[in-house]
Each structure stands twice: as structure tokens, then as C-alpha cells.
Recover the amino acids of this structure.
């Protein structure tokens, strides 16, 4: 009977989560339960921090180092254990009493247990197993969400570093223009209006530089928090100098559809919620009416005056009478919960395709924009820069026009970098959507325009 009760195996839960989200965890999701295991994970974290942290390594670092990730696993263990407990038999109750009346002493013993609990054990075990399955699926979903956040934060942190580098170049160019304009005005070769324009642009780029410096700090600290790094580990964190190159070809719609059809977590969770609600409703239909308790009694009576001893045996049944409460409200609540779960399942199924199409559109748009910058805009800007350099050498344009062109070229590179950042964030969001954890990834085509507006010359 005891072997028929629901139970929880943490290692099995972790294996299920690693299998369901293998492309996100790479089989590394674990829980450190003692100091030795924590030391092992910390050493793995140190090894990962000893070199520039790639996006894949950032995910592995979060899995082995983040207290938030460990809390997710531990909470899942607790939730699964609570679910398993609901499928177990309640302990029997032993009641003892001693009654003395004159020379007669009576000792009563009563062993009682819930008869309805025993009769519905197979049903409750099935419900408990369904709830355990729910906790396993939710763990996988939560881990996918955390990993996606890490991937996107890593992209923002690396892109912020690159942006700062180019912003410093624009600032240096603006600073040189402002200083040259000041000197030329002092000798009468530059009017006050043109000098003020150069100085105003220099002031604007100083503000942009300060903003870019803060963005580096903000993006890096966001990544530090998601990785769960302490102060010492944060100082060791090194990031690559640039984002990965764009893939040669984007993921095709057919490939995306095949990956998504392998089993979305959101649909599995909604289906598990509905199954659990339906099973619980059937069980509660019985338990809301009444409860039955069975007891086995053995009484011993001792008569000191006559020096006799007698024993009485029997049983008793306690039945809860549905007089004041027939359980109608509880049954209505269960009906409503099952109906809500059914509609959530239908809503999730209807939204799944829409979410995937939106995520793929954001991914493909970001890829096309990034490739356009790489293959069209940057080469054109390079050609313009080379031609302006020739014109400057031939004294056909001024140094200020040459500096302005240099700033335009740098701003084009920054716009291309912004497009690459949006692509890699959209890629992370698409991977989450394919497995059934939709994540927004806004795409903007105004990077180049914004960059050129910032040049303001």
C-alpha cells in the first residue's frame, strides 16, 4: 500500500528539465545540496570566469553559479514534494482512555483512519502524479525564461562595450573640430556662427559619451545580477570585444516550424493544468458530500472487587452528515476551475502560432536589417570616406568636412552594431518561442537615422 503512494525523485526531475530544455541547459541544470557540491560548482564558475565569457559560457555560468537558478530548482523540489504528499495516506489515529468508576477500571483503545482516503487512494495518487508533472514542466519553463534573459543581457553588455568604443571615436573627432574651430576663429579665419556649431556638436557628443559609459555599467551589472556573481567574481568577468558575426543564412520558416512542433512547453503546461483540474474535480465530487472514518475498538474492564477481567471488541464508523453544507459551492468552484483551465488551454493553443509568427518576423527582420547594414551601408560609407579623403588631399574640401565625414562613417558603424544587437536579441527570443516560452524582442529600423541625427553637423 505504501509503495503505491506518489513520490518525488529530484534527480529524475532535473533530468526531465534538462531533457525538455536541452538546447538551453546543455544538461547542466543541478542543485547543490551540501558544501562539497557548492564548492564544486564554484570551481566550475571560476573556470568559466578565467577567460572571456561567450554567450554559451554565460548560460553555463548562470546554471552553476546563480542563487536565483538554485532557488528555482529548490522551490521546484518543494512544490513537487508538496504535490506528492497530497497522494499519500493520512496516518491513523490511536486514541487511549482510562475511566475509573468505584472498583471498576476501564481502559479503551481506538485505532481510526479515514476510510474515504483509503478508498480514493488510486485517484489521489493519479492527481498527485499529475501535479508533479506540472512542477516539472514549470521548472523547464522557468529555466528557459532565465536562460533567455541571460542570453539577451549578454548581448546588451557586449554591444554596450562596442558602442562606447565608437562613441569615444566620435567624441575625439568632435573635440578636435571644436579645438580647431576655436584656434581658427582666434586668428580670424572662422566666423563665430561656424565655431558655435562645432562647439555645440562637441557638447552633444560629450553627453552621448557619458550616456554610453553609463550604458556599459548598466548592461554589465544587469548581466552580473543574472549570473549571480559576487563582488570578487564581478571583477573577474571579462567579455568579448565584439558580438558574434551574423550567420550565413537565417533559420528558415520550415525549420522553425519543425523545431516548434516537437513539443511546446506552454501547451504542455496548459494541458497538464487542465488534466489536473479535471481529475481533481472528479475526486472532489465525492469528498464534498461527506467524509467517512472507520475505527477499531478494544476495551478492557478490570473489577478489583470481584477480581475479574473482561475484554470488549468492536468497530465504529464516523460519518459526516451533509446537513448544513452539501458542498455545492466547492463543486461549483471546481467546475469553474476546470472550465477556466480548458479555456486557458484553448487560448494557449490559439496564441501559439501567432506568437511564433511574430517572433520569427522579428528575427528575420532583424537579420535582414543587420545584413543590409553589413553588405550595403557600411561599404557605401567606406567608399564615401575614401573619396572625401582624396578630395581633402586635393584641397577640394576642408578639414571640417573631412572630420564630419569621419563621424558619419563611425555613426554608420554604430547603427550596424545596433542592428546586430537587435538580431541576437531576436534570435534569443525566437529560441524561447520555439520551445514554448514567448519573449518579446522589439525590432527598430531607425538605427541609422538615429545615429546620423546624433551627428548633427
Amino acid at each position: 500500500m505504501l509503495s503505491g503512494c506518489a513520490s518525488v525523485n529530484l534527480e529524475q526531475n532535473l533530468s526531465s528539465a534538462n531533457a525538455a530544455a536541452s538546447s538551453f541547459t546543455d544538461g547542466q541544470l543541478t542543485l547543490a545540496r551540501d558544501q562539497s557540491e557548492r564548492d564544486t560548482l564554484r570551481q566550475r564558475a571560476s573556470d568559466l570566469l578565467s577567460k572571456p565569457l561567450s554567450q554559451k559560457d554565460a548560460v553555463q555560468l548562470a546554471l552553476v553559479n546563480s542563487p536565483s537558478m538554485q532557488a528555482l530548482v529548490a522551490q521546484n523540489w518543494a512544490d513537487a514534494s508538496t504535490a506528492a504528499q497530497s497522494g499519500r495516506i493520512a496516518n491513523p489515529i490511536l486514541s487511549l482512555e482510562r475511566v475509573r468508576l468505584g472498583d471498576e477500571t476501564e481502559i479503551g483503545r481506538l485505532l481510526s483512519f479515514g476510510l474515504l482516503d483509503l478508498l480514493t487512494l488510486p485517484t489521489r495518487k493519479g492527481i498527485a502524479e499529475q501535479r508533479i508533472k506540472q512542477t516539472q514542466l514549470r521548472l523547464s519553463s522557468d529555466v528557459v525564461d532565465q536562460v533567455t534573459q541571460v542570453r539577451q543581457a549578454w548581448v546588451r553588455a557586449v554591444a554596450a562595450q562596442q558602442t562606447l568604443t565608437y562613441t569615444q571615436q566620435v567624441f575625439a573627432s568632435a573635440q578636435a573640430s571644436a579645438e580647431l574651430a576655436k584656434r581658427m576663429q582666434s586668428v580670424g579665419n572662422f566666423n563665430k556662427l561656424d565655431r558655435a556649431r562645432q562647439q555645440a556638436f562637441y557638447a552633444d557628443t560629450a553627453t552621448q559619451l557619458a550616456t554610453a559609459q553609463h550604458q556599459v555599467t548598466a548592461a554589465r551589472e544587469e548581466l552580473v545580477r543574472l549570473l549571480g556573481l559576487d563582488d570578487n567574481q564581478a571583477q573577474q568577468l571579462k567579455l568579448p570585444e565584439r558580438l558574434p558575426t551574423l550567420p550565413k543564412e537565417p533559420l528558415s520558416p520550415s525549420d522553425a516550424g519543425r523545431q516548434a512542433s516537437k513539443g511546446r512547453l506552454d501547451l504542455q503546461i496548459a494541458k497538464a493544468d487542465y488534466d489536473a483540474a479535471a481529475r481533481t474535480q472528479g475526486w472532489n465530487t465525492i469528498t464534498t458530500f461527506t467524509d467517512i472514518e472507520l475505527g477499531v475498538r478494544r476495551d478492557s474492564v478490570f473489577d478489583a472487587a470481584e477480581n475479574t477481567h473482561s475484554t470488549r471488541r468492536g468497530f465504529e464508523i464516523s460519518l459526516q452528515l451533509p446537513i448544513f453544507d452539501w458542498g455545492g459551492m466547492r463543486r461549483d468552484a471546481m467546475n469553474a476551475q476546470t472550465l477556466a483551465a480548458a479555456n486557458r488551454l484553448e487560448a494557449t493553443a490559439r496564441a501559439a502560432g501567432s506568437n511564433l509568427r511574430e517572433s520569427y518576423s522579428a528575427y528575420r527582420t532583424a537579420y535582414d536589417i543587420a545584413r543590409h547594414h553589413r553588405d550595403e551601408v557600411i561599404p557605401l560609407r567606406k567608399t564615401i570616406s575614401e573619396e572625401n579623403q582624396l578630395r581633402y588631399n586635393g584641397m577640394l574640401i576642408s578639414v571640417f568636412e573631412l572630420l564630419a565625414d569621419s563621424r558619419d562613417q563611425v555613426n554608420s558603424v554604430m547603427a550596424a552594431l545596433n542592428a546586430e544587437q537587435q538580431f541576437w536579441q531576436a534570435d534569443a527570443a525566437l529560441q524561447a518561442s520555439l520551445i514554448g516560452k514567448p519573449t518579446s524582442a522589439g525590432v527598430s529600423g531607425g538605427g541609422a537615422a538615429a545615429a546620423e541625427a546624433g551627428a548633427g553637423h
